[in-house]
Write a structure and sequence with these properties.
85 residues, two-stranded parallel ribbon, 4 helices, elongated
């Protein structure tokens, strides 16, 4: 069984990794946790911010980000592109 690594801030889903035979042949074990500070979109942008399109590729926390967004984001944004598995 190959070693596994993950760029997600979520726990590694070993079962999913094993099911993905397209993974790189050389995987490294990196058992290192790095604390990160996070902010919501509401913290970063003022309440008048308006975007036509939002693209998210945030490695495992898509639902958390969507859940943290106020209703105004969904009312003013025309579309979202969210990369997830």
């Amino acid at each position: 069984m190959g070693a596994e690594s993950s760029s997600s801030i979520r726990e590694l889903d070993s079962e999913f990794v094993e099911s993905c035979r397209f993974q790189h042949k050389c995987r490294k074990v990196i058992n290192k946790r790095i604390p990160i500070k996070v902010k919501t979109l509401d913290d970063v942008f003022d309440e008048d911010a308006c975007f036509d399109f939002i693209k998210m590729d945030i490695h495992g926390v898509e639902w958390d980000v969507l859940n943290s967004m106020s209703d105004g984001w969904f009312e003013s944004c025309v579309g979202f592109c969210i990369e997830c598995r």
